[in-house]
Each structure stands twice: as structure tokens, then as C-alpha cells.
Fold this sequence. Notes:
This protein has helices at residues 5-10, 25-34, 123-133, 162-167, 169-180, and strands at residues 2-4, 14-19, 37-38, 42-51, 54-68, 75-89, 95-96, 102-103, 113-114, 119-121. The chain is α+β, with helices and mostly antiparallel strands. The protein has 5 helices and 10 strands, in the order E-H-E-H-E-E-E-E-E-E-E-E-H-H-H. 25% of the residues lie in helices and 33% in strands. The radius of gyration is 27 Å and the shape is elongated. The strands form 3 sheets. Strands 2, 3, 4, 5, 6 and 9 form a 6-stranded mixed sheet that branches. It has a two-stranded antiparallel sheet with strand order 1-10. Strands 7-8 form a two-stranded antiparallel sheet. It has 2 domains: 2-144, no CATH class; 145-181, no CATH class.
Amino acid sequence: MELRVAEIKEQSAELQIEESAESFPILAQLAKEEGYVFLGPVCVSLSADVVGGIVELSGQLSVEVEIPCGRCLAPSLYTLETSFSHSYVDALPQVSGEDGEELELSAEEMGLELIDGETIDLTEEIQQQVVLLVPAHPLCSEGCKGLCFECGVDLNHEKCQCADKKVGMHFAGLKDLKVEK
Ligand SMILES: [Zn+2]
Ligand SMILES: [Zn+2]
């Protein structure tokens, strides 16, 4: 997701951008490896303000995603939303200390980011924001019973006899001996 700096500077602008989740490498990886299903694009609304050579960008993002329940794997719908803001400059301003000497401060120390080239790339920022919003323990519901460890049935919808079987397990061993004879 790239923004043209010249465009932003010309018109302190309100922008609506939609971009498919698959175009963000980390989100594409979540879809491929973790079973995430993004139900729509990542929607970002941005407002840019240019104040004294500093481009102040603030944005809100939202994306709808189905994440497999950590216990039963059923897809659970999450709307991930957050806001962020950044300040960008073409060149770092010179900062003087109390004694008039020039201080060497990094962009980070000044809370600024340097514009590299003609565009501002928000890809990394946006995918990191989305990752921060992902629930650590996604659950379809608080009371989800999960899958049976033995036979794999979804205990929310079905009952299985695995718990009963365990009680009689050593008898089952004897029974098998008889069958083989
Ligand atoms: Zn569940
Ligand atoms: Zn079972």
C-alpha cells in the first residue's frame, strides 16, 4: 500500500484505500498457514495534514477475518480495527541543544520518519497493526468444548464414547487376545 507523497502534499487529503489482505505478506501467510479467511479487503481511511514540512498521517484500518477456533477449529468472525498515526519528513530538521550546539538526533528519537523516494509505503505498518489485533486464543465461544482428543468429533455438536471406553480399556485388551485365537 503506497501513497504518493506529492499528491498528499498538494492537497491535505482524506483518502479511502482498500487493498486485498493477500497483498500484505504477513496476512497472506496467516491465510495460508493458520487458516485465516479474510472476508474483505483491508480498508484504510487516511487523513493527511502538512504542517511546516511535516506530513502528519493518521489512519484507521479495519478488516474482517474468520479465524479458526483454538479448540474446535470452527471459523470465528473477528472485525479487527485500530487507528495509527505517523509523521514524515523529507529531511530531518536541525535541532540545537541549550548551548546552541547542533544535536545529532535520529528520526526515531524525534518521532519522525524519513520519506525515502516519492512514496510512503504503509504495507509494513498496516500488517503489523493487524497482527497486533489478532486474538492470542481465538475461541468460537467461551464455553467451546473443543474436539475429542481420541476420535476428533466436535464435542459442541456430538457426543462420543471415548471417555466411557477409557474406563474399560484393559478389558478391551483381553477381548483382542480372544479374537486373535
Ligand atoms: Zn470452538
Ligand atoms: Zn471421542
